[in-house]
Each structure stands twice: as structure tokens, then as C-alpha cells.
Amino acid sequence: MKRTMMIPLAAALSLTGLAACSENAQDKTGQAADAIGEDIEATADNAADAVGEAFDETGQAIDNGVDATENEIDEETR
User: Fold this and answer.
1) 31-66 residue pLDDT tens
2) How many CA atoms lie within 13 A of 60 on its CB side?
3) DSSP designation for 26
4) Cα–Cα distance between 49 and 22 in angstroms, integer?
5) Distance between CA atoms of residues 18 and 12, nearest Å
6) CA proximity to 69, closest of 43, 61, 44, 46
7) How confident is the prediction for the chain on average, in pLDDT?
């Protein structure tokens, strides 16, 4: 009789441990997903900043080129 009661009891305890493990695994998975989302957001922000800086630098280079060309034209027409 004791043996027949021990098997269901052991099974119940195993399932309880499995459920707790599953909840822990779900929590860890949720935390990992949050971390990945934050990494993606930070990467996108950094990329946007880098592109913005590149456009600013390109615009400045164009302005400098235009100014240099105007100066050359002014010198040639004097």
C-alpha cells in the first residue's frame, strides 16, 4: 500500500517542481526578450544618430565646396 501511494505522491511533487521551473523559465525568457528589445532600440537610436551626423558632415562639406568655388570665381574675375 505504501508503494502505491508513493508513486502518485512522487509524480505530484515532480509536476509541482516542473511547474515552478516552467514559471522561472518564463520569467527568464521574458527578461531576455526585454533585454533584446532594449538592445534593438539602442542600436536603432545609435544608427539614427550616426546617419544624422553623416548628413550634417556631408552638408558642411558641400557648403565648404560651394564657398571655395565662389572664392575661386571671385579671384578669377578680378
Assistant:
1) 998 899 889 999 999 999 999 999 999 999 999 999
2) 6
3) H
4) 40
5) 10
6) 61
7) 82
For residues 61 and 66, give the distance between their C-alpha atoms in angstroms, rounded to a whole number: 9
Using the structure block, give the residue that is written with the C-alpha cell 545609435: 46
Helix (H) or strand (E) holding 28: helix 2-76
CA distance linking residue 32 with residue 40, whole number of Å? 12
pLDDT given at position 1: 47
* pLDDT at position 18 over 60: no
Cα 25 to Cα 20: distance, rounded to the nearest angstrom: 8
- Cell 526578450 belongs to which residue? 33
